Structures are given as C-alpha cells and as structure tokens.
Write the structure tokens for this entry.
Amino acid sequence: MERIYLDHASASPVDPRVLEYAEQYLKLRFGNPSTLHSKGLEAKKALEDARGKITELINAESESSIIFTSGATESNNLAIKGAAMRNIQKGKKVAASTIEHISVLNPIKELQKSGWEFNLIPVDSTGLVDTEKMNAILTEDTTVVSIMYANNEIGTIQPISEISRVVHEKSLYLHVDATAAGGRIPVDVQNDGIDLLTLSSNDMYGPQGAGALYVKPGVKLQPILPGGGQERGLRSGTENIFTIAGMGEAARIAKNEMVEESRRLEKMRDKLIEEILRIEESYLTGHPTQRLPHHASFRFSRIEGESILLNLDMGYNIQVSTGSACTSRTLEPSHVLLAIGLKHEEAHGSMIITLGRSNKIDEIPRIAKGVKETVERLRKLSPL
Ligand code: PMP
C-alpha cells in the first residue's frame, strides 16, 4: 500500500530542487562567511543570496531586516525575550493569544518568573483573536504582543492587519509567528504592519535546522545568544550555510508557486472536509473559511486522536497528526482546543491533516475510507 503523508505541519520533505541547490554548500562550498578569503566570500554570497530570497518572500524593507536562526523556536525566543528585555524602560508586560505555540508561551512564562506580567488574549470558538477584548487588555506599558499568522493545529488565519492597527494605536511591538503560514499564503510584513516575524525553513520544504526572524528597521532587540556578533549582533554563532541556503531556495520556490499550489490544495482540502464530515459526530475545528489552504482539522466524539493516528498509520499507511508534535509527549489535551472552548474529552478526539506538494486529489477516496473505517472500528471498541 503506497504511503499517503498528511502531516506536513510536523515535518515536510525537503523539495528535491532545494536539495540540489543547497548540497553544494555541504559538499564543496563549506567556508565560514565571516572569513575574508575566497572560500569565506563564497559562503558569504550564499548567505546574502538566501537573505535576499527571504526578503522578497515577505516584502521586507531590506535584506538587513532578516536574521537567520536555528528555527522557529529560536526566532520566537529572540523576538519575545529580546524585545521585552531591550525595551524594559517601557514596562514589564508582554501579551500573547491563548492559542500561540509553546515556543511563544514558554519564553513568556520564563519572563513571568523574572517579574514580567503576562496578559493572555482570548480567541473565539473558531480561533479568531477578539480584537475588542485585545484592545481592552493592552496597555501602553506592554512591550510586545505576539499573535500568530495562522494556527498550526486548527488552521485559522488571523486578521493581522486589523490586529496590527490595534497594537500600533498603543505604540507596541507586534510579533507574528508565521511558521504555519510562511511560504503557504502571501505574507507582506509592510502591508500587514508587522514588527517582528518568525519563519521556519522546514515548513516551506527547506531543510530542518534553519529559521529566520524579520526585524523591522528601528525595532530594538537584545540578543539572547551573545558571542561573535554574527547576524548584526543579534544571533551569534557561525551561520549554518547549507540549511540557510536551502531555506532561501525554498522561499524562492514558494514565492513563485504559492498562488497556484494553494488553489490546488484548497480544492483538495474542501473535498476532504466534505467527505470526512459525512462521518457521524465528526466536527471541523478552526475557522470554516479563514483557514490555511492545506489544513483540515477535525474532532470525533467518543474516541482518542492517538488511536486514530496509530490505526491509520498501521492499517492504511496514512500519516496524520493529533496536535502539535512539540507537545505530543504529554497526554494533556491541546491548549489550543481548550482555548477555543472544547471540553477535555472533546479535545482528546482530534485529527489534523496538513496537505503538501506530493498529495493528489485522487488520494481522497482512500483517505476518507480509511478515516471512516477507523473511526467506526474505534467507536465499537470504545467504553465511552
Ligand atoms: N511555531 C509554530 C506555529 C509551529 O507550528 C512550530 C512547530 N512546527 C514552531 C513554532 C516551532 O518550530 P521548531 O520546532 O521548528 O522550532
């Protein structure tokens, strides 16, 4: 039985074109971009080319606005801790939505231990930030507000321009985690009014181990990794040229192909949703229309998401997810599903499908059949 991989939010295969471009930096062009000889200059050029490609993907003001990191977790930490600590004279308050990724929530909890106040911004039952409540929560002594572009578990896309307007009326910094959205839907930091933006290489088919943080000109950050002063002093450590070159190339491809690819996946997503919602007591989670084109998330009553995942994998060679891979080691229900108002027992029955370049529309009947049979079998076994 051929594999059907439906978990691109946890890990995406590296695009073969990305690998072909980047492998020269692993095999031959191994220089350190901070050195002055020809090998170093070769690496420096690869680094700056990648910076240019990310700049274009998100319409940043200039290449110098892009800082390379080891991934989204590091970018989120640098954005939040860096902004909070560097702008402490403004106040000791940080805010974030209740459905942020743990790599946003945990750095803020760490700041809390050092005396910062943490204000949580609620979302409605579809996962949209309530901008009126947000307006009431934010005060002028908040330094940074973190709201994700789109949620990785429920697919909901936030009205970032509207959020930006509210945040900037109070002269605060807006950090946006665009890990799930980058390379999938158009992100324009200038048009959207974003001060700090997190991107991840692997989420756009680049190699794992690279990420970027966009820092709007004039935004002040304190580095969280001091050392040799690479990346404008904001992220020390020799740059990982292979993964960064790969991320740049992945961004270039995504920019060229995003519109057409998202139209293709959107059709597939809608067909999948239609088929899966035919199953009794199955529900879509997240927003019905304002959602990522490749994202379909569900919950099924009276069964556990983990059982669905394992049965689909072993019985049908189909790989799905139940929640964020980063929190799958805990048996706690997803904080995102609780934040949109689900009860504990409802949150346990979740299944997330994230489509990608290799998926084809003719896979849908096999997916729908696999999910239906699995859900029905598990319900028969369920003591609930
Ligand atoms: N933010 C979001 C929205 C994510 O989905 C993830 C995980 N893919 C991260 C941040 C953290 O990414 P990483 O584990 O690659 O650092």
User: Anything to note?
Assistant: The chain has 13 helices and twelve strands. Residues 241-276 form the longest helix (36 residues).
